[in-house]
Write a structure and sequence with these properties.
217 residues; alpha/beta; Rossmann fold; DNA polymerase, domain 1; 2 domains; six-stranded parallel sheet
C-alpha cells in the first residue's frame, strides 16, 4: 500500500517499544491485590488509559488514587521494555515537525520508557494526562494534529490495538496496524495491517506536499 501524508502519529507501547511483559506484570500485581481476574483485565487493558480499565473492572475503588499509584509503580519498572525493531531508524529519519507520539500512558511513564530504550523525545507528545477522554475517543489524535497544526486528514497513524484504531478513525485519520499485540482479524478497522514496523518504507520530501510517502512491503 502507498500512503501519502504530512505527519505520522505513533502509538507508543506495541508500536515504538515492546512493554508487554512489564504491562502484564503490573496488571497481574494489581489484580491480585484486589481479588480480580488478571487475564480478563489484560484482555482489554492494552490501548486504553489505566483509569478507564480500572473504572471498568473496579468501580467500587477510588480509581483516581489507584491509577496514580499504578502509574508511579509503572514509571520505575523498565525491566522487559525494549525498542521495536526499526523504531529508532524510522523516527530518526523523520523531521521533528512531522511525527508525534500519542499514548494512553501518562507523561512520566512515556518519557521514562522512551529514555530507557533510547528513542528520541518527540516535539509533540500527547498522553493520558492531556485529555479528558482517552482512546477510543478521537480526542488524543485530534489534539496531536492541532498541536502540530496539521489537518487530521493529512495524518497517518500507526497503531496496534482496536481502541487506538477506533480513536484514529474517529479523528478522520488513516491507520496502519501492527500485529504486535493483537491478531490481524482484531485490527480489521485499519487501512492496512503489517507484521513488522520495519516493513514500512518512508520517503520524506521537505519541499513538497505531501511531505511523507509510506510504502508497505
Amino acid at each position: 500500500m502507498h500512503l501519502e501524508c504530512d505527519a505520522i502519529l505513533f502509538d507508543l507501547d506495541g508500536v515504538l517499544l515492546d512493554s508487554s511483559v512489564c504491562v502484564e506484570r503490573s496488571w497481574h500485581e494489581w489484580a491480585n491485590e484486589h481479588g480480580l481476574d488478571p487475564a480478563a483485565i489484560i484482555l482489554v487493558a492494552h490501548g486504553q488509559r489505566t483509569i478507564d480499565t480500572m473504572r471498568l473492572f473496579a468501580p467500587h475503588l477510588d480509581v483516581d488514587e489507584q491509577a496514580g499509584r499504578f502509574a508511579e509503580r509503572e514509571a520505575t519498572d523498565t525491566e522487559g521494555v525494549y525498542p521495536i525493531p526499526g523504531a529508532s531508524a524510522l523516527v530518526e529519519s523523520l523531521p521533528q515537525d512531522t511525527w508525534a507520539v500519542v499514548t494512553s500512558g501518562g507523561t512520566t511513564l512515556a518519557l521514562a520508557r522512551l529514555r530507557h530504550v533510547g528513542l528520541p523525545i518527540p516535539r509533540t507528545l500527547v498522553t493520558a494526562d492531556d485529555v479528558e477522554q482517552g482512546k477510543p475517543s478521537p480526542d488524543p489524535y485530534l489534539l496531536a494534529a492541532a498541536r502540530m497544526e496539521i489537518a487530521p486528514s493529512a495524518c497517518v497513524v500507526v497503531e496496534d490495538s482496536p481502541p487506538g484504531i477506533e480513536s484514529a478513525r474517529a479523528a478522520g485519520m488513516r491507520v496502519i496496524a501492527l500485529t504486535t499485540t493483537h491478531k490481524p482479524e482484531d485490527l480489521s478497522r485499519s487501512d492496512v495491517v503489517v507484521d513488522r514496523l520495519d516493513s514500512l518504507r518512508v520517503s520524506v520530501h521537505p519541499q513538497g506536499q505531501p511531505r511523507i510517502v509510506i510504502e508497505t512491503a
